[in-house]
Amino acid sequence: MSTTLAGMLFIASLIAAVALVWKPFGDHMYRVYSTTRHNRAERVIYRLLGVRADAEQSWGVYARGLLAFSVVSILVVYGIQRLQDKLPLSVGMKPVTDHIAWNTAISFVTNTNWQAYSGESTMGHLTQMAALAVQNFVSAAVGMAVAIALVRGFARRKAGTIGNFWVDLVRGTIRILLPIAFVGALVLVAGGLIQNFAGPHEVSTLTGGTQAITGGPVASQEVIKELGTNGGGFYNVNSAHPFENAATWTNWFEIFLILVIPFSLTRTFGRLVGQVRQGYAILAVMGVLALASVLLTNVFELSGNATVPQAVGAAMEGKEVRFGVSNSATFAAATTLTSTGAVNSFHDSYTPFGGMMTLVNMMLGEVAPGGTGSGLYGMLILAVITVFVAGLMVGRTPEYLGKRIGAREIKLASLYFLVTPALVLVGTAFAMGSAEQRASMFNSGPHGLSEVLYAFTSASNNNGSAFAGLTVNTPWYDVALGLCMVFGRFLPIILVLALAGSLAAQAPVPAGAGTLPTHRPQFVGMVVGVTIILVALTFLPALALGPIAEGLS
Amino acid sequence: MSTPVLEKRRVGGGLLDPEQMIRSLPDALRKLNPATLWRNPVMLIVEAGAVFTTVLAVFDPSFFAWAIVVWLWLTVIFANLAEAVAEGRGKAQAATLRAAKRDTTARRLKSRAATEWDVVGAPELKQGDLVIVEAGEVIPGDGDVIEGIASVDESAITGESAPVIRESGGDRSAVTGGTKVLSDRIIVKITQKPGESFIDRMIALVEGANRQKTPNEIALNILLAALTIIFLVATVTMQPLAIYSKLVNPGVPDSLALNADGVTGVVLVSLLVCLIPTTIGALLSAIGIAGMDRLVQRNVLAMSGRAVEAAGDVSTLLLDKTGTITLGNRQAAEFVPVDGVSEAELAEAAQLSSLADETPEGRSIVVFAKQHYGLREREIHGAEWVPFTAQTRMSGVNFEGREVRKGAATAVMKWVRDAGGHPTDEVGHLVDGISASGGTPLVVAEKGRVLGVIHLKDVVKAGMRERFDEMRRMGIRTVMITGDNPLTAKAIADEAGVDDFLAEATPEDKLALIKREQEGGRLVAMTGDGTNDAPALAQSDVGVAMNTGTSAAKEAGNMVDLDSNPTKLIEIVEIGKQLLITRGALTTFSIANDIAKYFAIIPAMFAAVYPGLDALNVMRLSSPQSAILAAVIFNALVIVALIPLALRGVRYRPSSASKLLSRNLYVYGLGGIVAPFIGIKIIDLLIQFLPGMS
Amino acid sequence: MDRMPGWLRQHLAALRAVAVLTVLLGLVYPLVTTGVAQALFHHQANGSLVEGGHGSSLIGQSFTDADGNPVRKYFQSRPSAAGDGYDPTSTSAGNLGPEDVIDTPDRKSLLTQVCTRSKAIGELEGVSGARPYCTPDGVGAVLKVFPDKAVSVNQACPAVPFVATYEGRRVECARPGEDYAAGRTVPVRGDATAVVPADAVTASGSGLDPHISLAYAELQAPRVAKERGLDQAEVERLIRQHTTGRALGFMGEPAVNVLELNLALDRS
């Protein structure tokens, strides 16, 4: 079988798998977030937390709970890193440097999982599992909670509340993420991932040298890293590491885990608003963008159009033999289309346009399908903006799912799509304006610019992947990227929750022939167009001086 | 009131007169004042850019820099021109109105019973003052007639030269200041506050003096501001990237676009101006003003822009049956004779009984007899007319020994029986049959025997069914309001093709219906003229009061139709929709334009450092300078080119949202992408020979 | 509890939530998973160690001697950027870009690295190490073009430039220390076709890639067979034996596990 055909079958089988679970899994999540019953474990947890699980919250209260939880999380993750040598299972690791610990704490709490450190030489096992992996779970659950809150805003009529943050957080964790993680971890161990608490142990190699075989609870962290679209690897080289991604089929399984929640949430959305077809429409938007991106990335990488890949004969630099070019490209697209940021190959060495695709995927705002929860709410914001322009064109005050998109709604949506590009561009400009920060670039010329642009795009969009050449464990980058991650995560969340509150308070307008239908291909096409054009228009100058200049040289 | 002809008058507007543009130029220049321009953030940024590049051009002059400067200023002026032209049309109307607002004096009565008055200036009148107005005098202020009846010339405000009748009591009591009494004498109770007369408000409205931004306009402005900010960020942050790119390519000489300090100020501003949504930013307020203006041209005064927008959102339309759906009077539709009587005989009797009957129903019988039975109207002499009275409930004629009557069934049957006749059951069946079909039966009898029944029918105006079908396609539900019984109402509703009806409607029923619709999230529009309509008019989202109506109704509604034509509501809805569509279409066009501009400017800026980027110069523009200048010129000219569209509004044909969107996307989305590629290329071909362009 | 202000209750709940979830997700979950994994998949959970304890079948190794020269009787792994090569405590990719073609005093360009590796492997296996965009002496064939001359920037003087002239300009060798940044960069493809496979000249993403391509294994087979005095067919058979095909026929690429192959050779 030809490499290209195998690569296409790989993509097709992933699509088939996601399609297969979309309905049952989406329905499951719908039940999780809409039932009024608490199971016994949850009741125990609510008692421990001291919260009234049946009390609904206004958007303000919901947001305050979320922020409080995130602040405490940052402090705890920071603390564990700084004290890891005093804690068990440190496997000889020293306390993490302050600016790296700060950056990492933010990185994992914001679901970015940007790694300014090298896992195998920085983090002890306890830090990995009790600080980092815990955030892998809860930051994903927070994202889903926000998405569900926004959907409730659309679904409710004249309501003052949008749900209960603690309930959404706990349910998402216990009923959705944890069971899949447990089973998935065992599947991955079967494929060769390690799961132990040993430190590195030295072996003598065949030719008489020595090699340290590392240990650690890798599988249990790997699974949630993909499922929660987190992406922070146990090791520096992330999912390229054979202990994180041992076989060709674990690679498939990991991509599946990355995609399953973000895509299935569209079903949950459709169910929650009581119109399954609206879920199909959002799914279609995500699907079109994702498929186009995956195919383009594959085309660019397989054709290997750049000097070095031409010299080599294939774009194999930074890629593993077992995955090959195509499956690596597919993983790269999946990880940047979502907010995962795990890598099984190194984007820095991609062809200019292949690398640009990963950048563009993130610049889209990670909406196709995006992070757990964040993808859905990001896409719904784009739908709101599309509805606004399109709605005017049919001669009515724009409305989406029966809710009017007025001045307040458009203000919140506009601010949402302002935040991330502003962070990316301002951050990149500052870094590129300073000779000292430019010195962190590993590559020269336009590729160096791409490295910096990539770093700020990844941090601001909470992706976490890197054009890994850039030296980012300097205080300046740790602080700057940390700020991008915080603002890139929580400003949009606050805006989304405010929007949820404002929508929930409205009485829905019944749909009629004069209402813009938001479930037809026409609307799907428009959202796709708006998504691409908004991105292209904002980032084209920067892209022109980076990957486009490199690719057209 | 002239009977409205239901011609297919589509929402359109006056043509744009080039002279208008020139006339508005001084206004456009005055609007360059930043204090005026701050309301429009997009154009304010352009003006700031124009000032900045002017300074740059003064210190570092080149033909290219000055050309850009000139076109940036033109961009702002064109935007101002659009607004000035739109306002100019309103001003012309205001001038006409002002002519009507002459300072008049009023004869103010001490009390209603008083016979004495004092003469005061019209502006001194207060609410509640009573004034007396006689033939030839101008009514000094808005008010209600409380005594007397008069014919009034209202042409000053309505443009309609036929005089109208105003009388105390009832729904035709309102008079407007500035109109002229032609006959008789009336006492008017002033209802306006000093300086807030109807004409004052009209002038303010058409001039757009205190124009408030409408909700959708505010929302759109926010979106445009956000886009402006993001492009500002994108262009400013490009600078360090450009400096770096120049730095790592030391072999590339400085150019007019790029040097060691990055992209030159003139080019950077050009890029920014081309990217921010200047097209819609320039035309947004003109669209709003022109929308109001289109209403005024149809003799509708909207008290707020909000109401016009709401009209586009209306999903339920309440229409009075009489005058709106039907011609207002029942007409003879059929003569049904009883057994043993020929149709011709019945027709002759019916005609005879109606010859002197000047009611619309009576006239329609004569007309029907003529059209269908060839009976000419005849002059009869010596006849004794029996007029209709509330007691007899029938009318007729005694002529040459014949006694013919027509009227309500019970009354005529009684008359027949009293005369010794024995009407058969057949008559009862005929009467019931006609009633059941929604018609009104008039029994015709001649001395002791019933001849037959005239079927009077409400006549639905021509073209109404098509109109309502259109409304349905637009997603608007039509509800007919009538005082008729449910049976009659249903028959007419079916014939007219409305979606629903409210029979035996009282003002309370109407109000309840509106509230019920609004509870379901629907916006309701209605027309009304009577005082008892006022609560419903106030409650409805779009309440159009008839100018002939009471001042209470006019106060309660948010629009006044000077033609008092209830069908106007449909046009108002179309204008409201058209207003929103025009905004949406031009926004789409504006954003879609950016793609071509990028393809013009990015290679122009950076192809020197990265020659590969010349591949993006898909238009093959002749040089970087001409590419940038062409983009800026296109950006400015497209504003001028679209002023007529902004003023006229995007073509609107009632159809489903989906179809509308497809069409507008095709024209303004796809067109917006393609047009600038062509336009910029043409401009480039023209300007490439200018000095400094290569 | 209820007397507490709302904001404080939120923060207390946040504190408790982090604590409770850390215990559940950070301790209970990994411990239980480890327990079950150790019971069910003991071999994999502990790193898939090979017989004899010479490492893990999933972690690639260098088959070089103390001086870093290839041990000729072993199949060689891919180039590695992990530490000094295949160091699991310092995993890394090369991270150089696809247009990294000009050497600097600090480091060789990716192109030159590729060319140098290709040349070395060619010599080791006794085949042509030539590649497109590579000079015969194994660096990147890249010119900096100036109006009056061209410089083969990766060939330091006194090397002989790989072409004598370029578009009428004389091509010079690169004088160390001279700044050629102002010139136009022109990589020259040449007419060579590569014999040495792609994976042999590129660093993997992990730096620990345990596999090589079938093509690279077959390229090495004659040398290994000769070195070990084995029949080449036998070596080829062992290669097939230690080749993992695509999972389900379409996932990934066929790959030869180098450590397992070398172990098998040692055993045979």
Q: How is the secondary structure organized here?
A:
The complex is a heterotrimer of chains A (553), B (694) and C (268).
Chain A lengths: L2 H32 L5 H10 L9 H24 L15 H12 L9 H4 L2 H31 L9 H27 L9 E4 L5 E4 L4 H10 L20 H25 L3 H28 L3 H6 L11 H14 L14 H12 L10 H20 L5 E2 L2 E2 L2 H27 L1 H4 L6 H16 L14 H30 L16 H31 L2
Helix pairs in contact in A: 1-7, 1-9, 1-12, 3-4, 3-6, 3-18, 4-18, 6-7, 6-8, 6-14, 6-18, 7-8, 8-9, 9-10, 9-12, 10-12, 10-13, 10-19, 12-13, 13-17, 13-19, 14-15, 14-19, 15-17, 15-18, 17-18, 17-19
Chain B lengths: L17 H13 L3 H4 L3 H19 L3 H38 L4 E5 L7 E5 L8 E5 L8 E5 L1 E5 L1 H4 L5 E4 L6 E2 L4 E2 L3 E6 L7 H10 L7 H33 L10 E2 L2 E2 L1 H11 L2 H20 L2 E3 L2 H9 L2 E5 L5 E12 L5 H12 L5 H14 L10 E3 L7 E6 L2 E6 L1 H10 L6 H12 L3 E7 L2 E12 L3 H11 L2 E5 L4 H11 L3 E3 L4 H13 L4 E5 L5 H6 L2 E5 L4 H6 L2 E3 L6 H39 L17 H25 L8 H31 L7
Parallel strand pairs in B: 13-20, 13-22, 20-21, 22-23, 23-24
Antiparallel strand pairs in B: 1-2, 1-3, 3-9, 4-7, 4-9, 5-6, 5-8, 10-11, 12-24, 14-19, 15-16, 16-17, 17-18, 18-19
Helix pairs in contact in B: 1-4, 3-4, 3-8, 4-6, 4-9, 4-21, 7-8, 8-20, 8-21, 9-20, 9-21, 10-20, 11-12, 20-21, 20-22, 21-22
Chain C lengths: L5 H35 L1 H4 L64 H16 L16 E4 L3 E8 L8 E2 L2 E6 L9 E4 L23 E2 L1 H15 L3 H10 L1 E2 L10 E3 H10 L1
Parallel strand pairs in C: 2-4
Antiparallel strand pairs in C: 1-2, 1-5, 3-4, 6-8, 7-8
